[in-house]
Amino acid sequence: MQLRSILIFTTQKLLRLGLLLLAVAIFTFVLLSLSPIDPVQAYIGADMMQISPEQRQLIAERWGLDQPMLLRFGDWLGQLVQGNWGTSMVFNQPVGEVIASRFSVSVQMLAIAWLLSGLLGLGLGIVAGALAGTWIDRAIRLYAYTLASSPTFWVALLLLIVFSVSLKVTPICCAAPPGRLAADVTFWQHLHHLLLPALTLSIIRVASNTQRPRQKQIEELPSDYVRPAVHSFRGAVQSFTLSAPLTQALKRLSQQSEVTLFMTLLAVFKVLLYRYTGQSDILIGHPIANRNRPETEVLIGLFANTLILRTHLADTSTFAELLQQVRRSALGAYAHQDIPMEKLVEVLQPQRDLSHSPLFQVMFILENTPIKTLELPGLALTPLETPFTIA
Amino acid sequence: MKVSIGSLGVLLIGSLLVGCGSGSDSALESTPDSAPESAAAETSPQTGSAEQIVLAIGGESEEGYDPTLGWGRYGSPLFQSTLLRRDADLNIVNDLATDYTVSADGLIWTVTIRDDVVFADGEPLTAADVAYTFNQAAESGGLTDVTVLAEAIALDDTTVELRLEEPQSTFVNRLITLGIVPEHAHGPDYARNPVGSGPYRLVQWDEGQQLIVEANPNYYGAAPGIQQLVFLFVEEDAAFAAAKAGQAQVASIPQALAVQSIEGMTLYDVTSVDNRGLMFPYVPATGETTPNGDPIGNDVTADLAIRQAVNYAIDRQALVDGVLEGYGSVAYGPVSGLAWEAPGANIQDAQPEEAQALLAAGGWADSDDDGILEKDGVKAEFTILYPASDSTRQALALATAAMLEPIGIQANVEGKSWDEITPALHSNVVVFGWGSHDQTEMYNLYHSQAAQGDFYNAWYYANQAIDDTLDLAMGAPSEAEAIAFWQAAQWDGTTGFTTQGDAAWAWLVNLDHTYFVSDCLDIGQPQVEPHGHGWPITANIAEWAWTCS
User: Does a structural domain hold residue A80?
Assistant: First the structure.
């Protein structure tokens, strides 16, 4: 089942990528064809006084530039489908070979850059997250922000000036020492020449790689448990009873504050979650009957919807204020209770993850319908407590 | 700012070395000797030797090294050899050829070649290879133009007959520049695996980085003095840095850096025909347009007095000293400094009085006292366009405009991209640069039939007498005979396209090409170099020698 969904996902992505590439190809082709730059002239460049009109014609024929635009594009696309990427005008070599010859060096460099930036970014991120708020954290953040906002070529030039020209510890150019045959290049020389370019590439990446572990760590560190990567759905039930005077007091407080008992209890529960998680932005799900029209009140069927009640606890300094905030958000949510939550998720497109539900993780329900004991002739019925083990 | 980034970099390197060291212990143990040695070799400056020198002179041929596609079109293709070549004074001398004759009608060129030449792979080079090379080049859509060739036929092993469609004296330049390829080893892969009979053969080409070549043991000429050459493909600034670090023995550098000095190296200031000049639209603006619909003509520059006055008013030596820092020479025509320059065409410039007299005689006067001359209600005003990315041309344009102001000509200077300049080419003054050893360029610059709304004679210069002279030059059987006509087209005492005649252009300067060359390297006498591409300084590379022990 999972394999199938992965397959569908991959196919969809590949299809999208293909369409995107095709669109880019068409766009590039049309733009270049309509641009005032004459490709034959561009190819000839500074030799224009030595090239006769007859030779220009030969050049145009060699590259098929004497053909109409549509025909050229169709030709190119047809060849591409057959695996022929065409010949590079600049390198006079099949495009596939041009890419392949540069690919290996690029891959090596990227791999080293990824590795470096991964290790370095992760390390710095963990340090910054663990020491959040200290000067070390601030220094690491300053470093990350500065690099994230610097263009790569500029950083590269600075590093080149410092390490190659001034300090002379890294080479000025090339993937190997000048004049040395490929067979004679040692592993160390290879590494030495890869060092500065790979370092430059990784330095930029370090910035973003530092931020994420830092943020994650700050989120996770205050909690008692680590959230697993996939929902376990393990759960339990905790029952307790509120005393009658406390219940009365809660009802009184609700009346004085012009809120419902539900709102008061919800506010209390939010405070509890706030204290547990250390997060101030609390979102809680709440099921609602969604029968707010007389016509639907008597119908048989399921109209229930889930509302999301959001409160920013950082914005309130007293419980009374919080209560009013909960009231506002609840009334607001009631007013729009017929908007299905599925629709909301669809529109908001929150980042989906197997470890948690979208938008909220906790539901809050006040069951205030009086429980009537079912009476059947000849039978005595009592509710049976069943152990809940799922959540 | 720089310091803080640098120190962070040190921090990064520090952590990096720790990371590497722990992971690669085994590799280090297996090669205990080689690692420190190579590290030392790289940090200490490499000095050249008779074994190997490094040249940072740019000019990578990304297309590869196939002469039939244009490699070596400026001469000396390095891997291949040519039938003829030009010596240090640009005289034509034999290379592969032992002799050549041109038929009286100029249509049949018969070349006899040496019989002792073998390609680097050991196969003999015969007339069939020569014929193959020329036929191939004539058909291929590359950057060498051999379209005038009807066909090339090998008569025997050492004689080849080149049959032309029409007489063309400049065809000799194809004999000078077209490297001969082996028929048996020539194909689509040849450009990356060139086999030729030149002084050097390719060892390794790391595209975008370096080209390593070594002396060809089968070369028929004197064995090259340097065994291995490394061409480093870096930008000019990096070339300078490489030279300064002792890693390059020859470095081509921009003139702005020529004032610097490098220990153990000498600045070579090589004269070139890489010229710069002002191109004048020759005809009045009558509403006529090119086939592309671009306007032709300019009412001010169509006036001979204006064009001549500009030529006389400009102080060319001041441009050389001020703009080029002295690394250049004055130019009065498109071929200044070459053997086919007309000696009488030069004028005495920096003469504003002479210029003013010419303008007055031409009917130009400042009737409204605004400092700018008028004639028939037209102000002596034009725009000088230059490619905005070229600071040398910008400085030349600005300096020239300043020199024209005192004589009452208002020149407005504007930098634009080539895409913007191209449509404005035929109706504005433009700072252009040319320069070639091939006289075809002169023909295409000045022949009226060449003007087709493109870069050829973009200024619509037209003089029947000049056309006739240029045609005679082109139709002459040999360069020696053509030279008289090439010179006459410039100035023969009564007509010409230079200042005293039609003053079609105001040529300004020739740029010098500047190189730093190791004191231990003897590069002989460099040729006058063409407009900067390729490796002109390597024309005599087989004669280079390492003089230090």
Answer: yes
Averaged pLDDT, B383-390: 92
Cα Rg, chain B, nearest whole Å: 27
B251 vs A: CB within 8 A = no
The answer to whether residue A6 sits within a structural domain is: no
Residue A109: Cβ within 10 Å count: 17
Alpha-carbon distance of A255 to A261, in angstroms, equals 8
> Cα B176 from chain centroid?
15
Q: What is the pLDDT of residues A309-343, one digit of tens each?
A: 998 888 778 999 999 999 999 999 988 888 888 88
Q: Are residues A100 and A214 in the same domain?
A: yes
Residues ≥6 apart with Cβ < 8 Å to B548:
B519, B520
CB distance A58–B69 less than 8 Å? no
Q: Is the pLDDT of residue B107 over 90?
A: yes
The reply to whether A192 touches chain B by the CB within 8 Å rule is yes
A70-93 pLDDT, tens digit each: 888 888 888 888 888 888 888 888
Burial (0-12, 13-18, 19+ Cβ within 10 Å), B8: middle
Residue B379 scores a pLDDT above 90 = yes
Whole-number Å distance between alpha carbons of B65 and B144: 13
Q: What phi, psi does A151 have (nearest 5°)?
A: -65, 140
Which range of residues forms the domain containing residue A174? 96-218
- Distance set, CA B541 to CA A184, B88, B139, B521, B526 (Å): 26, 12, 30, 11, 10
Q: Note whether B175 and B478 are within 8 A (CB).
A: no
In angstroms, the separation between the Cα of residue B409 and the nearest Cα of chain A is 31
Residue A5 class from Cβ within 10 Å (0-12 exposed, 13-18 middle, 19+ buried)? exposed
Q: Picking from B21-25, B294-298, B437-441, which range would have the lowest pLDDT averaged per residue?
A: B21-25
Alpha-carbon distance of A119 to A53, in angstroms, equals 59
Q: In whole angstroms, what is the distance from residue A92 CA to residue A87 CA?
A: 6
Q: Are residues A338 and A267 in the same domain?
A: yes
Strand pairing of B228-232 and B52-56?
A: parallel
Question: Rounded distance, CA B174 to CA B165, Å?
Answer: 15
Assess whether A108 and A54 both reside in one domain.
no
Sign of CA dihedral B2, B8, B11, B16: negative
Of B12, B43, B191, which has the smallest distance from its Cβ to A203's Cβ? B12
